[in-house]
Amino acid sequence: MPRDRDPFWDHVEEVDGRWKCKYCEQRFSLKVSVSRIKSHLSGVSAQGVEVCRNAPAEVHRKAYEAILSKRQKLMSLVPIRDQGQASVSQEMEVDTPMLEQLERLDRMTTDMLEQPQAPENLLV
Q1: What are the helix (H) ranges across 57-124?
Q2: What is the pLDDT of residues 75-111, one digit of tens each?
Q3: Domain tally for the chain?
Q4: Which intervals hold domain BED-type (predicted)?
Q5: Helix crossing, 34-42 with 57-76: angle to 10°?
Q6: Is the residue at 82 inside a domain?
Q7: Are 38 and 52 within 8 A, CB to CB?
Q8: C-alpha–C-alpha distance, residues 123 and 44, integer Å
Q9: Is position 85 within any domain?
Q10: DSSP state at residue 49
Q11: Residue 64 reports pLDDT greater than 80
């Protein structure tokens, strides 16, 4: 059974043999993974992806939540230390700067939802 199509593909369109963000002029290879699209839309400057400054706040929030959800799911798969020795998968630490940015974006999103502000305040 094939996977469901990721809804974040709806935020790009094919133009001249490349994906183009519907909110800005950022272009991606047709071979790009949806995770790079999510990073672009999330408003978090990380992973070497240019941040989209024109996407609506709701798109920023949903992309951020999708990234955070994936990270939490991956971290739940890391086994607990067994007799004081870490497994190989446990040694793969969370990218601290990325996690800090995600937490910062979470606080900013929460503040924004409580007191509506301009979407550019969401970007980090």
Answers
A1: 57-76, 96-114
A2: 666 555 444 544 434 433 445 566 676 677 667 666 6
A3: 1
A4: 3-59
A5: 130
A6: no
A7: no
A8: 7
A9: no
A10: -
A11: yes
- Give residue-wise pLDDT tens across range 4-30: 689 999 999 999 999 999 999 999 999
Instruction: Name residue, tokens 């980090």.
Output: 124
Torsion on CA atoms 112, 54, 64, 32, rounded to nearest 10: 180
pTM of the model: 0.58
Q: Is residue 46 part of a domain?
A: yes
Q: Which residues face 15 on adjacent strands?
A: 18
Q: Would you say 49 and 35 are in contact if contact means Cβ atoms under 8 Å apart?
A: no
- Report yes or no on 52 lying in a domain: yes
3 state DSSP class of 121: helix
Looking at 25-29, 31-35, 112-116, which range is the least confident one?
112-116
Do residues 6 and 34 make contact, with C-beta atoms less than 8 angstroms apart? yes
